[in-house]
Amino acid sequence: MNITSAKYKSRSEYDADGKVTSTSNDAIIATIDGKDYGVPLDPANTEYIEIMRQVAAGTLTIEDAD
Amino acid sequence: MALSTIGTNQIASEAVTVPKVTDQVLSSRNFIINGDFQVWQRATAATAGANNTINTTDRWGWLLSNDGAVTSEQSTDTPTGTGYSFLAKCTTADTSIAAAQYASIFQNIEAQNLQPLGYGTSSAKSITLSFFVKSNKTGTYTVAIYKSGNTGYIIPNEYTISSANTWEKKTITITPTAGSTSFITASAGALLNTNALGFQVAFGLAFGSNFHGTNNTWSSNASHYSTSNQVNWMDSTSNNFYLSQVQLEVGDTATPFEHENYGTTLAKCQRYFQKISGGSDRFVYAGKGQGSTTVDATIPLTVSLRASPTMNAVNSRAFNDAGLTTSSSTTPTVNNYSDNDTHLAINCGGFSGLTNNEVNTWGLSSNQLNISAEL
């Protein structure tokens, strides 16, 4: 698979008043073979394994979440 | 002797052999899923894309890196007893395969399904691969089995397509000590007992010299997918390659192909890939607002997935009982999935006007949602 970009996606939790109580990364949005995919942070997920392999090899960088 | 008097004591144990047992018993012996190519959830024909991708029949994909191009499609040209076969066509030739180039059709097998093999022990068992094959291009081909795990080993095996355009059945038995090796019977030969990759079965169509090992010999060089005798099937746009009734089983005997009903094979495939057809809010799922721009929703699964899945970008809509309709083109992601769950919790952003924790429904307005947990 050809992964050309990767960016973390964050998820916020809210209190009863709708105020943000915490925010953390919960997925990666990656462009794979020219299309966007949501990739879970699961070490058993094939795309996640490949993303992290490329990160370790220094050929891919995961951008911070917005 | 009356039939009612025939019991175990009247049948010599050596009189009952595997060839005498029909394929109506000893079920679930095929480690290959969709070996008769009955299930095609993604498409019935497509040009092969990037390396290591599956884009037509379920569970089967391409290992590709060469200067040519190939397609795969569903074919009704089959050996007796099968509805479909897998047909590969070379659509752009590569007459000179470079050392690092290759073309191969593969299936990955989950490690925990392979535990009966006893790999990593002195009691490791032989395996037998059988299949029907047909091609206009005769000659020597190879099929490799890569064993994943803490240490990867691989064994290439040659077979010959003798007659052009004729279905031929091939049987290859692989012992754990093939080539007088001890990789598989040593502890490093063990397979993981997890949902990770166990075997990769790879039918070679072309392999450059970087991938050449020794026929029927286990190797610690995980690149040894083939041998120097492998034909270059990529050398002409006239070339085709049909595959059918692929079976990998324990032991040194190829039993008859294990036919399954369609629903059984489909369910096995859906552990790795499920799809939801989109379009005009055909399916909507219960959810709630998570903040003002994202929705948490729950999708029921047909079977539990192998792992938390990857999902493609889709166009979707959210609705609430106050008449709110809001659209998004943001890629959904998994919010929560654990082993053996029967539902998938997803999160999708890109909406507006939502209220935190307010009930919403979420569904596809167009596109097809592909839920992939492939190995």
Characterization of this structure:
The complex is a heterodimer of chains A (66) and B (375). With 66 residues, chain A is α+β, with helices and mostly antiparallel strands. In chain A, strand 1 and strand 2 form a beta hairpin. The longest helix of chain A is centred in the C-terminal third of the chain and has 11 residues. The mean pLDDT of chain A is 95. The radius of gyration of chain A is 14 Å and the shape is elongated. Chain A contains one helix and four strands. Chain B is an all-beta fold and 375 residues long. In chain B, the strands form four sheets. In chain B, strands 17-16-20-13-14-19-18 form a seven-stranded antiparallel sheet, with no helix packed on it. A six-stranded antiparallel sheet of chain B has the order 1-3-4-11-6-9, with no helix packed on it. The radius of gyration of chain B is 24 Å and the shape is globular. The relative contact order of chain B is 0.16. At the A-B interface, strand 1, strand 2, strand 3 and helix 1 of A face strand 15 and strand 18 of B.
What's this entry about, in short?
The complex is a heterodimer of chains A (66) and B (375). Chain A is α+β, with helices and mostly antiparallel strands. In chain A, 17% of the residues lie in helices and 50% in strands.
